[in-house]
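Field reference: "sequence" (input) and "structure" (output). Example, Lipoprotein:
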Amino acid sequence: MRWSDPIRAALAAFALVALAACGDLPQPFRGNPGGQAGLLAAPPAYRLAIPRPAGAMLTDRQADGFAEALSTALLANEVPASATDPLPLDWRLTVEARLDGTAVVPRYTLTDPDGQRQGSAEGARVSSREWSAPSADVLTRVARDAAPRVADLLLRAEAARKGMDPAALAVAGPPRIYVPMVRGAPGDGNMALTARLREALNQQGLVVQETTQGARFAVTGQVDVVNQPATRTQRIEILWTVSRQDGEDLGRVLQLNEVPQGVLERFWGDVAFAAANEAAGGVRTVISNAGGFPTQPGAAPRPAGPQAGQGLAMPQNPGALPAPQAQAAE
């Protein structure tokens, strides 16, 4: 895919300019990441096998059709899945179903190559009448409902593995971070930046949450756009503020960019991908410096964290979380 010069300039110009108390910053994916960057930046090092779901209350033929529908839906969600019996290094998705009144509730369980259960999720209820003789459309609908739930299980399992070794994981688990919707961006920027940052933080070994319950950290994003008529450009400022559950402001990641006026008024696309991936590395560094990742035996002492600042409290009502105010990074 060929990009216009304004889009190319926008991708190339995003830069991290400040991060409180963290020293040099990792800056992956700087510049033009390419149209397939979201698929190729960190390809999954696994395959998810979906054997015939014998416990799904389906005939063999129907069960095979459901496994194929699940595989297709998961591939559409960028999960490398195959309707087949697992090989030794494959992850496995076990599908079962149970009756609940006049409905059937499917359940999906994820197992790693060592046979360890990594989590499970229930799907949307299906009428028992539909499930007793499901058409291809019904199986496809149920599979599409299941795909994002299974993808989330995989992301959480990957985050747990990347966050720390199994011994430490058994004690504390990877840090959980609340990521609410970004605010202030034109076009689809709020949704695009939020989605890409959540994905990037999962890849950094954090468990991302859309609610505050159980989260130790939070990161909020505020976008400010300043029109510059003299040069027909806009200055885009993205301020990511990392806070802890007790309200302490741990640090800020500030990104600045000048783009031709109107270039981000509709779609952010790969610009959001590049900005979020750069920001995620900085966010992880802030959390690591604050002791968010348990120290491994024999590891060097972590650097001292930043001083207390005006933090963001994490209320029970996520809608009450105050928006960060743009200010000079420390």
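The chain has two domains: 5-42+165-320, 48-163.
Helices lie at 5-13, 37-40, 60-76, 128-132, 136-163, 166-171, 189-203, 270-289.
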